[in-house]
Write a structure and sequence with these properties.
Helices cover 45% and strands 25% of the residues. With 190 residues, the chain is an alpha+beta fold. Strands 1-2-3-4 form a four-stranded antiparallel β-sheet, with helices on one face. The chain has a four-stranded mixed β-sheet with strand order 7-6-5-8, with helices on one face. The protein starts with a helix and ends with a helix.
Amino acid sequence: MEQATQEKITNPQILYFWRAPLRAYKKRPAGVLRFYIAVSLLLSLIVFFFGDKILVLPIWAIMFLFYVLTITPPPEVENKVTKFGIETAGNTFRWDLLSHFYFIKKFDYHVLVIVSVAPFYYHLYLVLKDENALHDLVKILSEHLIYQEHPQKTFIDKLTEWLTKLMPDAISSGSAEKEVVVEKGLGASL
C-alpha cells in the first residue's frame, strides 16, 4: 500500500493534486429545514387549491432533495490536474474538451469552475480548501485554458445567488441579537 501511495505522489504526469469535499457544504441549523418545509407547504397549498394536485409530488420531491443536500455532508474526493487533463471523482476530462475556468466563492470555500466546449458547456465544480491552491491552479490551468477573472453570470446563476440569500443563516446571528436585547434590558434595569 505504501508503494502505491508513493507512486501516486511521484507520478510525473500529475501536475497538481488535492483532496476536498465533492461540493461546497455548510452545516445548516434546524431553522433552514423549517424554512424548506414552510415554503413547500405554501406552494403545495397554492397548487392544490388551483386544482393541479399532481404537482404536489414534485414540490415535495424537490424539498426532499434540499433536505438531503442540507443534512448530508459531501464525501472527500481526489482532484488531479495532469498533463492530459483534469481527473476528479473517477472521471477524466481532456484539455481539448475544456474551454475556460474561473473561481467563485461559495460558503467558506473557493470553487474552481471549469467549463467545457460547445455545444454542451458542461460545468465542473471543484472545491478548494485553501487559498494557496487558488494561486497554484491559476498558474497551471492558464497554460491550457482561458482564465476569466469576472465570468458572465447566466440567469440561473443570478437566480441561485438570490435564492441563497433568502435562506436563513446560522442560529448564532439570532442568538447574538437576543444577547444584545438582554444586555440592553439589563443596562436599563441597573
